[in-house]
Amino acid sequence: MTIDVVMPARNEAATVAGNVAAARGCAYVREVIVIDDGSTDGTPELARAAGAKVETIDGSAGSKAHAMAMGVAYSDADAFLFVDADCLGLTAAHLDALCVPFLDGRCVMSIGAFDYGEPLNRIVRRCPPLSGERVLARWVFEAIPTEHLDGYTIEIRINEVVAKARLPVAIQTMAGVTHRTKRDKFGVAEGLRRTWWMFRDLLKLLLPGQVRWRLYWYYLQKLRVLQG
Ligand SMILES: Nc1nc2c(ncn2[C@@H]2O[C@H](COP(=O)(O)OP(=O)(O)O)[C@@H](O)[C@H]2O)c(=O)[nH]1
Ligand SMILES: [Mg+2]
What we know:
Layout: E1 3-9, H1 16-25, E2 29-37, H2 43-49, E3 53-57, H3 64-74, E4 79-82, E5 87-88, H4 92-103, E6 109-113, H5 120-124, E7 134-137, H6 138-142, H7 154-164, E8 169-173, E9 178-179, H8 182-186, H9 188-204, H10 214-222, E10 223-225
Parallel strand pairs: 1-2, 1-4, 2-3, 6-8, 8-10
Antiparallel strand pairs: 4-7, 5-9, 6-7
Helix pairs in contact: 7-10
Bound molecules: guanosine-5'-diphosphate and magnesium ion.
Guanosine-5'-diphosphate (GDP) is lined by residues 8-10, 12, 35-37, 62-64, 67, 84-86, 132, 152, 179, 182, 198.
């Protein structure tokens, strides 16, 4: 079973090298592929210097979802470990721990949640997971219809494929891991605006004809929460 890391990155100069290093240190990873998309801050150069293979998308209609699809298309791996380029505190040990239940065959997708502290983590582990840090079989990603590859909703679309097939997912909190928030990256006003856009896109998924509510029930029934 080969696993490649796909790391979508747009203007993540502050954190990309550290996350590439963590990904390269993961014992189960073959290659780290960074998909850059119009970065203007040296992100691709920093990623390459840290040992990643870097592909740059030349297109203005990009999104994180399209970058992920591009990474999958570039690679012939059996499975993908998606890692955001803006994580803080992420180490190879966190990624090893994500891969183990997946490689053991305990789940078709293994997710790492950010550490919000207890008791919040217990709740977060049971919410519809939005975390970008996850390892999954190639077929899961390829089962997402092309028209569902869109911005901030990609994680929910991945969940949808797995829940529809009634397959188990494992989730664990990655101790000490968070990310640079939109506020950190863009300042208060622009950060709030972008956070609103994200929630707006996610709320649209609740409209009729989008993601069915009952899939969350199927997801919960098959969920393996590794830390209780
Ligand atoms: N290549 C590419 N990466 C993107 C794009 N949008 C976001 N990303 C990356 O995807 C990851 C998650 O995006 P982020 O904005 O942090 O989303 P959030 O964690 O939900 O706030 C980060 O590594 C971003 O740099 C994009 O349009 N193209
Ligand atoms: Mg982020």
